Amino acid sequence: MKAIISSTYDSKYLYFLPIVTFCWNRLGVDVICFMPYLKDGIDGYNPDKNKRAKYELIIDTLDELGIELQAAPFSAPEHKEATYAQCSRLYGACLDLPEDEILITADVDMAVFKKIWVDIPKEFPHFYIIGNDLTPDKQYPICYAYARVGTWRSVFELDGKAYQQCLDEHLGGIECENMRGNYWGADQEKLYNMASRSMPILTPRSNGQNQFATKRYDRDDSYILDRLSPDTIDFHMNRPGYEEKNFEIILTILKYHYPDEDFTWLVDYTNAYKQLL
């Protein structure tokens, strides 16, 4: 299985990349992250120098942990980068992967502690959608949709296309004043429209009172540290994660779920990341 996530170089999201990769890796799941291309320097000037420094810090941190991250770069106009990043997760099956590999979509700021998926029978041509009751009508949540690569390719009609082509076809012709705001749900709408063709297996997660998921720590919960439980599946982490109060919450929760892990690496990474802000 491979987790498909994405990020821009906005530190509100990028900072979390090694944490989320660490968590998926502990579950035996590799991570593929879609990210915008970094620009090369011209005549000694590199407009993305700071972005590159952050990315290299992340890779160095994961290397020290013995964890490999596969990055899948895409091109997008600057004002569309966030929307391209969101929707890129739908096109992981465009990568060179075996047909029977399982891909699961997720967020770069969602730490996962427990296996949330079920085993997919061979030749099972359906999507699994977890938390279908957490999104508006005619949307499926990007956390989490999973299926075999062959199913993604068939249902999304990828037909051997490159993911850049798919993204350009999906978003390239759209222009508006606030791309990110107006098309915030573009990924989940596309997921609904396409995955619905496969008679998906739906697994509700709502607590029945609002659109918060059961067995999830949510960053909007003022009493989050009062709810520590070994049954918790995932954690929508507090943002920005490197700010002192948020970092203390994140570190406390990680230490609870990984009591044998020495998180000195995370403290060092966070301090180094803050120097690049």
Question: Can you give a write-up of this model?
Answer:
- By secondary structure, this protein is of the alpha/beta class.
- Helix content is 34%, strand content 15%.
- The chain has helices spanning 11-14, 17-26, 49-65, 81-88, 149-155, 163-171, 179-182, 186-195, 244-257, 264-274; strands at residues 2-6, 30-36, 69-74, 102-105, 110-112, 128-130, 145-148, 201-203, 216-218, 234-236.
- Strands 3-2-1-4-7-6-8 form a 7-stranded mixed sheet. Strands 5-10-9 form a 3-stranded mixed sheet.
- Helix 4 (81-88) packs parallel to helix 8 (186-195).
- The two termini are 34 Å apart.
Layout of strands and helices, then pairs:
Blueprint lengths: L1 E5 L4 H4 L2 H10 L3 E7 L12 H17 L3 E6 L6 H8 L13 E4 L4 E3 L15 E3 L14 E4 H7 L7 H9 L7 H4 L3 H10 L5 E3 L12 E3 L15 E3 L7 H14 L6 H11 L3
Parallel strand pairs: 1-2, 1-4, 2-3, 6-8, 9-10
Antiparallel strand pairs: 4-7, 5-10, 6-7
Features:
10 strands, Spore Coat Polysaccharide Biosynthesis Protein SpsA, Chain A, single chain, 277 residues, three-stranded mixed beta sheet, alpha/beta, seven-stranded mixed beta sheet, 34% helix
Question: What name does the CATH topology carry?
Answer: Spore Coat Polysaccharide Biosynthesis Protein SpsA, Chain A
Sheet with the most strands, sense and barrel status = 7 strands, mixed
Q: Taking all residues together, what is the mean pLDDT?
A: 94
Name the helix and strand elements from N-terminus to C-terminus, one letter apiece: EHHEHEHEEEEHHHHEEEHH
User: What is the CATH class?
Assistant: Alpha Beta
Assigned CATH architecture = Alpha-Beta Complex
**Judging from the principal axes of the Cα atoms, what is the shape?**
globular
Please provide the count of β strands.
10
Query: How many helices in DSSP terms?
Result: 10
Ranges where pLDDT stays below 50 over 5 or more residues in a row are none
Quickly count the domains. 1
The strand line-up of the biggest sheet is: 3-2-1-4-7-6-8
The chain-level structural class is alpha/beta
Give the termini separation. Answer: 34 Å
Q: Taking Cα atoms only, what radius of gyration do you get, to the nearest Å?
A: 18 Å
**Which bin fits the share of residues in helices?**
25-40%
Q: Name the quaternary structure.
A: single chain
**What fraction of residues sit in β-strands?**
5-15%
